[in-house]
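Hey, resending since the last one bounced:
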Amino acid sequence: MLVGFGAVMVQSASMTSWPAEAERLYFSRHVVFLLVAVAVGAVCARLPASFWFRAAPWLFAAVLVLLAAVLIPSVGTRVNGARRWLRVGSLSVQPAELAKLALPLLLCRLMRLRHAQQSRSFVRSLALVWPLAVTVPLVLLEPDLGTASFLAAGALVALFVGGWPLKNFAALGAVAVPCACAMVWLRPYQLRRITGLLEAWSDLNQAPYQLRQSLLALGEGGWFGVGLGRGWQKLSFLPEANTDFVFAVVGEELGLIATVGLLAVWAGLYAAGLRAISHLPRGGFAYPAAFALLTQLVLQAATNVAVVTALVPPTGIPHPLLSYGGTNLVVSMATVGIVLSLSRPTDS
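The structure tokens again:
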């Protein structure tokens, strides 16, 4: 349902005030991305759970190489002041998206090995976060604070469900929170996102342009929307209408009924996923990894909705399975496939 609905909304949200061939190009590319994503998801689902346990270090190493490569001026591609993409011809890959798979898998593997070795040393237990300590700075250098924060949140979910002691979270927070505050304070544009969010709720006219147009689109939709394909904000008024703010297009064209229905589908997907992995042993590798990946996928959708509705500052996080973008779509389908793979009975 999400994939089919996403294809329809990408087609609609890609319309502009001056009809051109680019509108069809977006949809045709999305269909190609979708076919690749379904194939990748199917392959991931067929692999045994033990494969992900063995492959986790190699996947993480490959992602680290890509994250480092994207920072090299002659290799990475800079767009709007950020160097986040690797391009080969007409194809582009965003390595930070791949880290959403590699980082939780490696952390869950390390937690499984820690339990097997019965290591209770505070220092050794705290040292398990080294993959997070390596990945997040590389993403911040792009710079991409939104994705870095999301990767950190997904890693914390993996550590929590894997049984990481609460005192370790306190120690990590004592270091991470001041660093995050300092980073926001030292970068004026990041601080502006926070103040702009507050202004959106106090005086809409003073809100950042993108948030203002997003809220106007949602308000215009009312209960049942203005009709599929008939929205106005996507016609060059709402930036990133077919990627980060596709949820606003849904609200304008199909109304509150559709947006609430979309949230209900996501809730159903999450409930079905939790039910599929409920039989797995809690102390193994499969359950924490599947739970972390599934929660991360749903959390990404929730974060995108929160940004579009001005509940949190803009983060640049796309809506999984709905937004236009090849890497995000492939990673989202791979996540579903890996969860299905891990849901099979296993001894790991």
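The mean pLDDT is 85.

Sorry for the duplicate.
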